[in-house]
Amino acid sequence: MRATRPAAAALAAVLAVLAVPAVAGCGIGGPQRRTIADNHRLVIGVKEDQPGLGVKRPDGTYAGFDVDVATYIAGRLGVPPERIEFTTTNSSVREEALAAGRVDMIVATYSITAARKRKVTFAGPYYVAHQDTLVRPGLPGVDDVRDLAGREICAVTGSNSWRRVIEERGVAAVPVRYPTYGACMEALARGDLDAVSTDDLILAGFAGDGPGRIINDPFTDEKYGVGIRKGDVAGCAAVNRAITRMYQDGTAERLLREWFGESGLELTTSVPQFEGCT
Ligand code: GLU
């Protein structure tokens, strides 16, 4: 049967009403946008080859400080472990994975930076790390970051660490591209790189496994944020409440000690100053 004009108009009106909540979710308090605070399930991006932070085990499960932090936050958002799907987000794919909706949240040694803030809303930080440098065994004369001039350093695609040395510090090191920090560490162990300069937590995670010397010259604040889709301010606020709680109830301290207690790093166990949800 062909729809008459009035019937078609009525159908259009019904469809318009149905479409509104899906797009704008108009509630009594005004328009609301989709937020991860309402998710029944969460897909969370983590690292897969950074010991102590995010490692993918042979059985496909993930383990590490970031994984535990993410699991805690999800729990506070009402999502239990069986409704979390972890997936690997290397440094090069993080912004794009969030923008494309492939992940709901990223907890992956993800420093909050001005450039990234243009594309991502960051909750947190949930921890503040500091950049330090691991040099290959036997390499003399590298005692602070300036000594990296002329040295081959690891440059992980999408990561900020090598930029901190070359662009921010103006040190004329030679960047050599690698896809992940795991690959950098293998290269360092083979003698193919002079140094890996990155967050002290990342270096601490590898220190037990690999050769090399940490020079102990920390020179940045790496504010580890929880990346969420740009504009999800309600989700960001909910994650910040979860992070505050994680410090208040002793979970943050327990997790830091569990994963990094033996590292020799000075661990900060008070809630970090939040950046604000923009
Ligand atoms: N935290 C630094 C960054 O976000 C280095 C670690 C990483 O790339 O995951 O760039």
What does this structure look like?
The chain is α+β, with helices and mostly antiparallel strands and 278 residues long. The protein has two domains: 36-128 and 223-260, Periplasmic binding protein-like II (D-Maltodextrin-Binding Protein, domain 2, 3-Layer(aba) Sandwich), CATH 3.40.190.10; 130-221, D-Maltodextrin-Binding Protein, domain 2. It has nine helices and 15 strands. The strands form five sheets. Strands 7-3-8-15-9 form a five-stranded mixed β-sheet. Strands 4-5-6 form a three-stranded antiparallel β-sheet. Strands 13-10-14 form a three-stranded antiparallel β-sheet, with helices on both faces. Helix 2 (65-76) crosses helix 8 (233-248). Bound molecules: glutamic acid. Glutamic acid is lined by residues 91, 108-111, 156, 159-161, 198-199, 222. InterPro entries: Bact_solute-bind_prot3, Solute-binding_3/MltF_N. It comes from Actinomadura sediminis. Residues 1-24 form the signal peptide. This is Glutamate ABC transporter substrate-binding protein.
